[in-house]
Design brief:
Elements: H1 10-41, H2 112-115, E1 127-128, H3 131-138, H4 143-148, E2 152-160, E3 166-173, H5 181-191, E4 194-195, E5 197-199, E6 202-204, E7 206-214
Antiparallel strand pairs: 1-4, 2-3, 2-7, 5-6
């Protein structure tokens, strides 16, 4: 077994120390240069305060002046020779004599209160006992209308008192053919029995309108 001799090189041993010292030296040089540039370019800035004055000026409000429209020009009559234009006419003043004023009309006669239909408030209207079926039982078709084959409808107003009695009738809508529909309807409405109208649980005398139809079977 042969042993080789290892040569000892002092430069290799000093190389890390030399490198470390070089880095430290370069950093010191950079720091010195930086400090030198900072002191050279440092300037003092003297800032003086600036005084500002604000003036407030009052502005008057804006006034809108409304000008009325100019007056219309008066119409000036222009003479014409056309015969179609009528001549000017003068209207004489009219005088009214208000010294004699007729008196107001008096109250209607008492008999009108039953002959002329008047509105009376009620809660339940008067009704025919048995309905329209009871009316048809006593309704007589006029012979003239039956022979002529005429049909129609009339409206009769009936005044029913507190006891349910029919007192008066009035034709509200006539047929117009004068074949006896109105008379036949009145006779039938006066024959049937009625239930009086009620107002607050009390019977009242009122008018009621009943349409009566005449149809041939």
């Amino acid at each position: 077994m042969s042993l080789q001799k290892v040569r000892h090189d002092p430069l290799k041993e000093q190389y890390p120390k030399t490198l470390e010292l070089g880095l430290i030296g370069s950093l010191l040089i950079n720091l010195l240069l930086l400090q030198a540039f900072r002191t050279e370019f440092r300037t003092e800035l003297n800032v003086e305060p600036v005084e500002m004055q604000i003036e407030v000026e009052e502005i008057p409000p804006t006034e809108q002046t409304y000008r009325p429209p100019p007056p219309a020009r008066p119409a000036v009559p222009i003479p014409t020779e056309s015969e179609d234009v009528p001549e000017d006419e003068t209207i004489e003043p009219t005088e009214f004599d208000l010294s004699e004023i007729p008196p107001p009309p008096g109250p209607p006669p008492e008999e009108w209160s039953e002959e002329v239909p008047m509105f009376v408030p009620y809660d339940e209207p008067p009704q025919i006992i048995g309905g329209m079926a009871a009316l048809r039982k006593v309704l007589v078709y006029p012979e003239i209308a039956k022979k002529a084959g005429i049909e129609g409808m009339v409206v009769i107003a009936v005044l029913v008192d507190e006891q349910g009695r029919p007192l008066k009738t009035k034709v509200m809508k006539a047929h117009g053919g004068k074949v006896g529909f109105e008379e036949a309807a009145i006779d039938a409405l006066m024959q049937v029995k009625w239930k009086p109208a009620m107002q607050r649980d009390l019977p009242v005398k009122v008018w009621v309108s009943i349409p009566v139809h005449f149809k041939l079977k």
